[in-house]
Amino acid sequence: MSLINFNTTVIKNLFSKPATRKYPFEPKVYPERTRGHVQNDMDVCILCGLCSIKCPTHAISVDKTEKTWSIRPMSCIQCRCCVDNCPKKCLSMDTHFTEPGSEKVTKTFKQSEKAIAAQEALMKAAKERAAAAAAAKAAAAGNAPAANAAAPAANAAAPKAEAPAAEKKDE
Ligand code: SF4
Ligand code: SF4
């Protein structure tokens, strides 16, 4: 009986399509959710550095002065933590695996002019808001003496009102 099963399996495998791919002759087709390598859309990245902080293998580094974002692909374990934590959603997992190599390389990408301009506009708007808030505070402080001017008049009645309390204490 087992011999019949064995023969059936052999014949079936002889005439069926192989389960493996004939690499490199067949094109590389990865399943949709394959975690190949991390890629960054530098048009959107604001160099906040959160991905670098969250990366468990310290594969990512961010240089705000040079406006660059770097990754060491050989150190990346494809955990997807950076992708899930990016506030701008500019990171994604590409389905293609990093090409093997004999050296550890660091891939560096520069923030795009578009992203730099957008970030500068945001910072300018934030500065203007802060200046407006400071001006409003100063204006409110400028009005304060007028408001305080009424205080002595109001306080003038206070000693009379407070006197019984003081007397009570002495008893
Ligand atoms: S990729 Fe995302 S988390 Fe990393 S620096 Fe850019 S915006 Fe921040
Ligand atoms: S996928 Fe994981 S290991 Fe790779 S860079 Fe992102 S956080 Fe780091």
Task: Give an overview in words.
- By secondary structure, the protein is mainly α.
- It has a domain at 27-112: Alpha-Beta Plaits, CATH 3.30.70.
- It is built from five helices and five strands, in the order H-E-H-E-E-H-E-E-H-H.
- The chain has helices at residues 2-15, 50-54, 81-85, 113-156, 158-170; strands at residues 37-40, 60-63, 68-71, 91-94, 107-110.
- The chain has a three-stranded antiparallel beta sheet. A two-stranded antiparallel sheet has the order 1-4.
- A hairpin with a 4-residue loop joins strand 2 and strand 3 (68-71).
- One iron/sulfur cluster binds at residues 40, 45-51, 62, 69, 86, 88, 90-91.
Provide the fold topology.
Blueprint: H1 2-15, E1 37-40, H2 50-54, E2 60-63, E3 68-71, H3 81-85, E4 91-94, E5 107-110, H4 113-156, H5 158-170
Antiparallel strand pairs: 1-4, 2-3, 3-5
The protein binds iron/sulfur cluster (SF4) (2 copies).
